[in-house]
Amino acid sequence: MSSEKPYGTRAIEENQLESWPNPASDRPYLVSFDIPEFTCLCPRSGFPDFALIKIRYQPRDLIVELKSLKLYINGFRNVAISHEGAVNRILDDLVAVLAPQWMRVTGDFTVRGNIHTVITVEYGSRLTSSGHGDAWPRATAGSPSGVGGSAPGPQ
Questions:
Q1: Which pLDDT does position 108 carry in this prediction?
Q2: How far is the C-alpha of 148 from the C-alpha of 129, rounded, in Å?
């Protein structure tokens, strides 16, 4: 039996969030991702936590490369991190790489201990097709923490 790590494990560990040029940077539009298989570890118990992660953003000059996003999200599966920490970290890392006009990340976590947790964080302000901001409700006005967009791991 080889002691070499499976290729998927290596891909996750080596991954960096990547961006591409926005092909329609002259118009405001919305990009939406639903990631139904997010997992991380409870920092207190070590048991797995599961969530649907929803990412919505209005790009400026850059858009996220999807395979790098998938591997980045998969990198949380063995990371001990709170629900709040995970969702805020995803927002901070994506904002650091993409510098979007607006972004919202929501973590809708599976019920644990009879409590259903939903965390929503936002960055920036959303533009309408006229180029003006709208009255979109903001859960939290965030700013990037300067955390790089590399695969998550113990910090």
A1: 99
A2: 31
Q: Decide if pLDDT at 2 tops 70.
A: no
Catalytic residue among 26, 34, 40, 42, which? 42
Catalytic residue among 49, 92, 93, 108: 49
Beta bridge partners of 64: 19
What's the pLDDT tens digit per position in 89-133?
999 999 999 999 999 999 999 999 999 999 999 999 988 766 666
Q: Would you list the domain boundaries of the chain?
A: 18-142
What is the rounded distance in angstroms from the CA atom of residue 12 to the CA atom of residue 153?
10
Whether 49 is a known active-site residue: answer: yes
DSSP reduced 3-state for 114: coil
* Fold held by 18-142: GTP Cyclohydrolase I, domain 2 (3.30.1130)
How far is Cα of residue 2 from the mean position of the Cα atoms in its chain?
A: 33
Q: Which residues of 59-71 are buried (b: 16+ CB within 10 A; e: fewer)?
A: bbebbbbeebbbb
CB 57 within 8 A of CB 31: yes
Contact status, residue 32 vs residue 55, Cβ threshold 8 Å: yes
Catalytic residue status for 40: no
